[in-house]
């Protein structure tokens, strides 16, 4: 059977993210009807007498591209590659607005403990939320979910290093696919909320904005969740509380009043001085994280587009 244009487009996105064809396997996320064409226009006609004029790509017209991104569904593409930093095969999932992700800034989505890159898309409904926030007026951007395991998004004594994966493997792949990676945003919940705040603290030259839901943080190593840190020294080297805001980073923090991390989230609001926060009703569950996700996406998308192009 001859490949459809839809299949060719999603395969092209996955191949670009993989870096080289042998490095991984790219497949559309979920059913085929969710992997929609990117909307890239093609020239019609040869330019000879009476020929139909070529149609410009929406990428050549920012207003047209924004309109396309707002009107169309998201394109969701999963890509697998072998991560040297993590010592295993990992998956990342690109959620792009209609019109594609090329030339767009990127927000990394860091999952909670027990979640993964594929499940994160459905957990928050990212494929529906991204077009929705763009329709509401946020400039277009792309989302990338990642497999971070249970390492709390930092290097562990085992050698598992999701932070290095982000910096040295994921970021170059996104750049090779044409996305803007000079500065990134980070968004996450629970373990991933901590991870987003940690990435911003350790790399303020890279992270322009961090949005955290129910960030998993503790005051001491002894109070932390089993397996979150290797030792008291590891805990001390990767603190967020007590470190203050990172220079140049815009923060948003959300936590429900019934969440076990509500108290430390209130402390984080005081210490990190976020531009936006909410500490209303809610618990430590996906329903709460979904409820604050639209505001978080609007926040990081706006911050990404304040950057110099």
Keywords summarizing the entry:
nine-stranded mixed β-sheet; alpha/beta; 309 residues; 34% helix
Gap between N and C termini, in Å? 43 Å
Radius of gyration: 20 Å
Average residue pLDDT: 84
Question: Stretches where pLDDT falls below 50 for ≥5 residues?
Answer: 1-13, 19-56
Helix content: 25-40%
Number of helices: 9
The tally of strands reads 9
Estimate the global geometry from the Cα principal axes: globular
Report the sheet with the most strands, covering strand number, pairing sense and barrel closure: 9 strands, mixed
Could you say which structural class the secondary elements and strand pairing correspond to?
alpha/beta
* SSE pattern: HEHEEEHHEHEHEHEHEH
What order do the strands of the largest sheet run in, or round the barrel if closed? 1-2-3-5-4-6-7-8-9
Beta-strand residue fraction: 15-25%
Structural account:
With 309 residues, the protein is an alpha/beta fold. It contains nine helices and nine strands. The chain has a nine-stranded mixed sheet, with helices on both faces. Helix 2 crosses helix 4 and helix 4 packs across helix 9. The chain is globular. It starts with a helix and ends in a 5-residue tail after the last helix.
Short description:
This protein has nine helices and nine strands. With about 300 residues, it is an alpha/beta fold.
Task: Chart the SSEs and their pairings.
Layout: H1 5-18, E1 24-28, H2 62-71, E2 75-83, E3 88-96, E4 105-110, H3 117-124, H4 126-135, E5 142-146, H5 162-176, E6 180-189, H6 191-202, E7 207-213, H7 232-237, E8 250-254, H8 262-272, E9 276-278, H9 286-304
Parallel strand pairs: 4-5, 4-6, 6-7, 7-8, 8-9
Antiparallel strand pairs: 1-2, 2-3, 3-5
């Amino acid at each position: 059977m001859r490949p459809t244009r839809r299949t060719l487009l999603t395969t092209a996105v996955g191949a670009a993210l993989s870096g080289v064809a042998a490095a991984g396997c790219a497949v559309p996320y979920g059913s085929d009807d969710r992997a929609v064409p990117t909307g890239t226009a093609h020239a019609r006609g040869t330019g000879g007498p009476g020929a139909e004029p070529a149609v410009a790509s929406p990428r050549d017209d920012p207003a047209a591209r924004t309109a396309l991104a707002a009107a169309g569904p998201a394109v969701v593409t999963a890509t697998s590659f072998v991560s040297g930093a993590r010592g295993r095969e990992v998956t990342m999932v690109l959620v792009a607005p209609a019109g594609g992700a090329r030339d767009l800034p990127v927000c990394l989505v860091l999952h909670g403990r027990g979640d993964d890159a594929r499940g994160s898309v459905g957990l928050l409904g990212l494929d529906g939320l991204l077009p929705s926030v763009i329709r509401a007026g946020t400039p277009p951007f792309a989302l990338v979910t990642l497999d971070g395991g249970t390492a709390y998004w930092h290097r562990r004594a085992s050698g598992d290093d999701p932070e290095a994966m982000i910096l040295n493997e994921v970021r170059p792949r996104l750049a090779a696919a044409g996305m803007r990676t000079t500065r990134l945003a980070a968004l996450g919940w629970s373990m991933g909320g901590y991870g987003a705040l940690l990435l911003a603290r350790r790399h303020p030259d890279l992270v322009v904005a961090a949005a955290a839901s129910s960030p998993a943080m503790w005051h001491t190593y002894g109070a932390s969740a089993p397996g979150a840190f290797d030792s008291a020294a590891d805990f001390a080297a990767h603190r967020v509380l007590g470190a203050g805001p990172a220079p140049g980073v815009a923060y948003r923090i959300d936590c429900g009043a019934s969440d076990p991390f509500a108290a430390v989230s209130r402390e984080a609001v005081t210490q990190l001085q976020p531009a936006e926060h909410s500490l209303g009703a809610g618990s430590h569950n996906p329903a709460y994280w979904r409820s604050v996700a639209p505001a978080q996406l609007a926040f990081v998308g706006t911050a990404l587009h304040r950057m110099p192009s």
